[in-house]
Hints:
The structure holds 2 protein chains of 2 kinds. Chain A is an all-beta fold. In chain A, 0% of the residues lie in helices and 47% in strands. In chain A, the strands form 2 sheets. In chain A, strands 2, 4, 5, 6, 9, 10 and 11 form a 7-stranded mixed beta sheet that branches. Chain A is globular and about 45 Å long. Chain B has strands at 3-5, 10-14, 19-21, 24-26, 32-39, 46-52, 60-61, 64-69, 74-79, 88-96, 107-109, 113-118. At the A-B interface, strand 4 and strand 5 of A face strand 6 and strand 10 of B.
Amino acid sequence: EAEVAQSPRYKITEKSQAVAFWCDPISGHATLYWYRQILGQGPELLVQFQDESVVDDSQLPKDRFSAERLKGVDSTLKIQPAELGDSAMYLCASSPTSGSKNNEQFFGPGTRLTVL
Amino acid sequence: AQTVTQSQPEMSVQEAETVTLSCTYDTSESDYYLFWYKQPPSRQMILVIRQEAYKQQNATENRFSVNFQKAAKSFSLKISDSQLGDAAMYFCAYRTLNAGGTSYGKLTFGQGTILTVHP
Lengths: 116, 119
């Protein structure tokens, strides 16, 4: 069964350093989401792509976070510089825009970021 | 903006027993989706069950069922015949049906409920 892939699974960095996370959605899924999940809380949307276009980045801290999906397939989320408060799980999800599963989001395993 | 509230940070149940997880939400929309997601320790989040707000019939998926009370904005999850593998964090989530707004597709999650299953 197809799954959303994310790497790395774990990342430890020092504050003020740059970090990048990668996500490969399920093949054919046009919509891609990046969520941030602070320990013990529910995920919150950072950015949503439809193909290569950003459709919602209202909660993305744009002074330090950036996201791209250049060819409308895989995506990269970058933080520069990282701050202590960025320690969290970063989840990627994808969904199709048609078919019986178009209301379901499929999540990857996440990247656990620790900022020291 | 929509909000989702899960008032039970932790719940526990004996194996083979039944447990109900609570969720309330706030919205001004009339059409939307509600979901329960399961997040096992160190594993990815998976969909448990989905409810369309325009459907009056409560959704069921094997041992999982919901009690959807639209007027009360309540959406509880009942797990019957609980199994050890049901132990996880459970999230209630809301999704708008409005295809024209920028929030289309976005899931709004509650804070989660940790479910422990005792053998």
